[in-house]
Amino acid sequence: MIHELKILPEHFEAVTSGRKQFEIRKNDGDYKVGDRLYLREWNGENFTGDSYKAEVTYITDYAQKDGYVVMGIEGLEGAK
């Protein structure tokens, strides 16, 4: 499944640089390992036009708020 998600610029830059290899999200999309994330940079008012594609490689709800998950992600080749 492909999930299209908004991501703020500071988090987007951390993901695209490889420093942040996870996403914490409310599990309202029933995320699963193997799903694809289409992360669209959102400045709080508009999409910037930048995007990044990643695959969910790991998922856990350990020590998260109810209904939230941590997803390990890996950028897809030519992801940006």
Automatic annotation (TrEMBL):
Residues 5-77 form the ASCH domain. InterPro entries: ASCH_domain, DUF3850, PUA-like_sf. It holds the Pfam family DUF3850. This is ASCH domain-containing protein. It comes from Candidatus Enterococcus mangumiae.
